[in-house]
Design brief:
The mean pLDDT is 90. The chain is of the alpha/beta class and 802 residues long. The protein folds into four domains: 208 residues, MFS general substrate transporter like domains (Growth Hormone, Chain: A); 218 residues, no CATH class; 43 residues, no CATH class; 294 residues, Vaccinia Virus protein VP39 (Rossmann fold). The chain is built from 29 helices and 14 strands. α8 packs parallel to α10. The strands form three sheets. It has an eight-stranded mixed β-sheet with strand order 7-6-5-8-9-11-10-13, with helices on both faces. Helix content is 63%, strand content 10%.
């Protein structure tokens, strides 16, 4: 090959642009497809396996399909152009396939297979092209350690671009633009890279002295240990990223911004490490030795990350509520991520170019070999390991042995990877220093693995509040496939249920009042509720309240994490009436949105108590399209209710939630639940398919019936002695709040704007001011209620006298 090294820096820049576009695509495509196939651990596993599997296939297929005689830059440019075409086509195709999927999927065992078909259909073409770009470009460099070092630089440039794409998408594009616009920006980047690649291909010399047959016959035998080690490196890298992302998101608050910070730091480490590894490999006479040492050091870096996350970072004395802007909090989160994640990411990044250089040791005498084949195989091995690491970690290791055990496995596997690389050298007696050092590092890695600490229970319970909350009195804690959960008991005997670092439900007065209000008002607003869907199990109190209504025959509860109904519910049996064991109840272990999109059933009542909207992914249960799907699954006269928190929120966030709900249920109403001290806490939104007035006397007569005594007692336990006490919580309706909601962001599937708005305000506690703003528009709606004059007069006094 006749190469001009002066063009190699320009190729580096092309890879920067390619990586930027790829990460924008990845974020957008994952977000769009999660709206369709759900965000359960199984759905995400299918999604990730398809994405990375396509890249693996592309890295292997390129050299089998494309002749070595083709100019590498011309091939690379065509690949980038085709990726851009795929990106543009998917903007149109994804919504169409989404509608087809929801029409065909009926749940059951075949659902997982259908999700895989959707992912393969949409993601395989562009990801195969993405995986082929590095092997394509690698044909331009010689198969020597020096040439391979340039490929390491290209790989590093690709990751640098990925960091830019990650940060740009997470902090600028998606908070301000919709998903289609973000995709088209990535398409534009691809087309620019393709155009520059074509121009560069005309200016750079290239010739291959070998036919494809000759190249294949001269393909050197790269030691299998190199492939095994780089595969294990990919396994530990993606596995550790899964674990560390899960644990750090507990600490930071699981906002979309937190995930962008964690991913950005991890990718930055990979990029910097790749550049450093390429520089080391360039002049090294023993790149295999350097590759082996990197694997041993990865084991120690994994132990360092585990130590920092479990023992140090959670206890930093930080009160994020004091920050005057969320951007100050992001800086602290960035610093904590750098402490824990960067060392390991640097070494994983350095491993790839060192593996390439080690593979090239066997081909120094044969510089005309097809470099693309070698690079493709090394890249494929690394990607296969990454796929296995991400899938096994999330679906097997964490549910089985927890994050502590998973990190111990990664430390040991990294040590084994180092031994595999060094084994040919260790077999000879002429390298005693290497053998002794490897032995010491292996023992040190095993000692470090034995010292890994479990995640503090307080981090699962309190998350970012741990420094000032202190260790909780934990009755139970566990790490499930989808979430980490805990049950605690505090002074006064109050129990709390925690999910991923925040209280999701409790037996404290304000929470019990909300959960019972949400359940009972859902049933009471319907004349004869028989079939009910409950979104989110929580502590089971809301579902339990509905279950004791005598007309209810069947209830479906959607819950992603199996540990919650099976274990957590038992700690709240007294409060939830043992609802998990009720014969009326069936539990669907699925993402609630996916269940609503694909079920063929209809319900009289659908009530939703999702996690806070600032939690990444939760905004999908607050979109206009989701509410439209909910509305389509209501029987005539149906009722839908939705919980909306006022705390850990801002006026703009609440306005967005209400405006979005009312855009689907224009006769919607607001019912408030104040804290025990009278401050604003949260509200319940009610939407009904009919406009019939609420008959106050009929409701009171209903709960006075003997068969409703359990309902009446359940209401009285939380301070609702009569129907009047329930209805007095009325706080407004859509028509009254129209001036306040004017200009509010409508949360749509195509933008999920709510998660970005909410992610900036989760440290704010403005429940009372928000509540007061809502109440300032309230009047007594004479057309909403009916009953005897005395009853209406009494209710008027109760509603407006507060």
């Amino acid at each position: 090959m006749n190469n001009s090294s002066r063009f190699l820096p320009l190729m580096f820049l092309l890879f920067v642009g390619s990586g930027c576009a790829a990460l924008i695509y990845e974020i957008v495509w994952f977000q769009v497809l999660q709206l369709v196939i759900g965000s359960s651990a199984v759905s995400l596993a299918v999604l990730l396996a398809t994405f990375m599997g396509g890249m693996c296939a592309g890295s292997l297929l390129l050299t089998k399909i494309v002749s070595q005689a083709r100019h590498p830059l011309d091939v690379y440019a065509r690949l980038e152009g085709l990726i851009g075409v795929c990106g543009a086509v998917l903007v149109v195709l994804m919504p169409l396939v989404s509608r087809l999927y929801t029409a065909v999927d009926g749940g059951g065992q075949s659902s997982v297979l259908l999700r895989a078909v959707v992912c393969v259909l949409l993601l395989l073409p562009p990801t195969v092209l993405m995986g082929a770009t590095l092997p394509a470009m690698s044909r331009y460099v010689q198969a020597t350690p020096q040439g391979m070092s340039w490929l390491g630089f290209f790989y590093g440039g690709n990751i640098v671009g990925a960091v830019v794409g990650c940060v740009t998408a997470g902090f600028f594009l998606l908070p301000r633009m919709d998903l289609s616009t973000a995709s088209l920006i990535a398409v534009a980047i691809n087309l620019i890279v393709a155009a520059l690649g074509f121009v560069l291909s005309k200016r750079t010399p290239y010739s291959s002295q070998l036919t494809d047959t000759e190249s294949a016959s001269l393909m050197p035998q790269v030691p299998r240990g190199i492939y095994v080690a780089i595969a294990l490196s990919g396994l530990t890298a993606l596995g550790a990223e899964v674990v560390w992302t899960r644990l750090l998101s507990l600490m930071f608050g699981a906002t979309t911004y937190a995930f962008s910070i964690i991913l950005g730091v991890f990718l930055s480490g990979l990029g910097i490490g790749s550049v450093v590894g390429s520089w080391l490999a360039r002049d090294s006479k023993q790149p295999r030795v350097l590759f082996g040492w990197a694997q041993f050091l990865v084991a120690l870096a994994g132990a360092w990350g585990a130590f920092m996350i479990a023992r140090e970072l959670p206890w930093w004395p930080l009160d994020e509520r004091l920050a005057i802007s969320p951007w100050f909090v992001f800086q602290v989160d960035l610093a904590r991520t750098l402490f824990a994640v960067l060392p390991g990411a640097l070494l994983w990044g350095a491993s790839f170019p060192l593996a390439l250089a080690a593979a090239s040791e066997s081909i120094n005498a044969n510089t005309d070999s097809d470099t693309g084949r070698i690079v493709g195989r090394v890249y494929a091995a690394n990607t296969l390991g990454a796929i296995l690491g991400s899938l096994v970690t999330g679906l097997v290791l964490i549910p089985w042995i927890g994050t502590k055990g998973a990190q111990q496995v990664f430390i040991v596997v990294s040590m084994v990877s180092g031994i595999v690389v060094m084994l040919p050298l260790l077999r000879t007696l002429r390298r005693p220093a290497i053998a002794a050092t490897a032995g010491v590092l292996s023992v040190l890695a095993l000692v470090c693995a034995s010292q890994v600490s479990a995640v503090p229970v307080g981090l699962i319970a309190w998350g970012r509040s741990l420094p000032w909350q202190g260790p909780p009195n934990a009755l139970y804690w566990g790490e499930g496939m989808n979430a980490s959960i805990a049950v605690t008991e505090e002074a006064g005997g109050y129990r709390s249920f925690h999910v991923s670092g925040k209280v999701e439900a409790s037996t404290e007065p304000q929470d019990m009042r909300l959960q019972r209000l949400l359940g009972h008002i859902s049933a009471l607003m319907h004349d004869n509720p028989k079939d009910v869907l409950v979104v989110g199990f929580g502590a089971g109190v809301t579902a339990g309240a509905i279950s004791i209504h005598p007309t209810v025959n069947r209830m479906v509860i959607c819950e992603m994490e199996p540990l919650i109904p099976k274990i957590v519910s038992t700690y709240f049996n007294e409060a939830n009436h043992g609802v998990a064991e009720s014969r009326k109840v069936s539990i669907a272990y699925d993402d609630a949105r996916h269940y609503v999109l694909t079920t063929r059933e209809k319900f009289d009542v659908i009530t939703s108590d999702p996690i806070h909207p600032w939690v990444k992914g939760a905004a999908t249960l607050y979109t206009r399209e989701y509410f439209e799907h909910v509305k389509a699954h209501l029987n005539p006269g149906g009722v839908v209710t939705q919980w909306v928190p006022l705390y850990e929120s801002t006026p703009d966030v609440v306005r967005s939630e209400l405006a979005t709900f009312f855009s689907v249920f224009p006769n919607g109403t607001v019912w408030r639940n104040d804290n025990s001290n009278g401050s604003g806490y949260d509200v319940v939104l009610v939407g009904r398919l009919d406009d019939k007035p609420i008959d106050v006397d009929a409701l009171q007569a209903r709960i006075d019936q003997p068969e409703y005594q359990a309902v009446k007692a359940s209401l009285a336990e939380v301070g609702y002695a009569s129907v009047f006490d329930v209805l007095r919580t009325y706080s407004g309706r859509s028509s009254e709040l129209a001036p306040w909601l004017d200009g509010a962001e409508i949360n749509r599937d195509r933008n999920l704007r709510l998660q970005y708005l909410a992610g900036l305000g989760y440290n704010d506690f403005l429940g009372t001011p928000i509540r007061n703003e809502i109440l300032s528009y309230r009047t007594f709606p004479a057309d909403l209620f009916k009953g005897s004059p005395a009853s209406i007069a009494q209710l008027n006094t109760l509603v407006m006298g507060q």
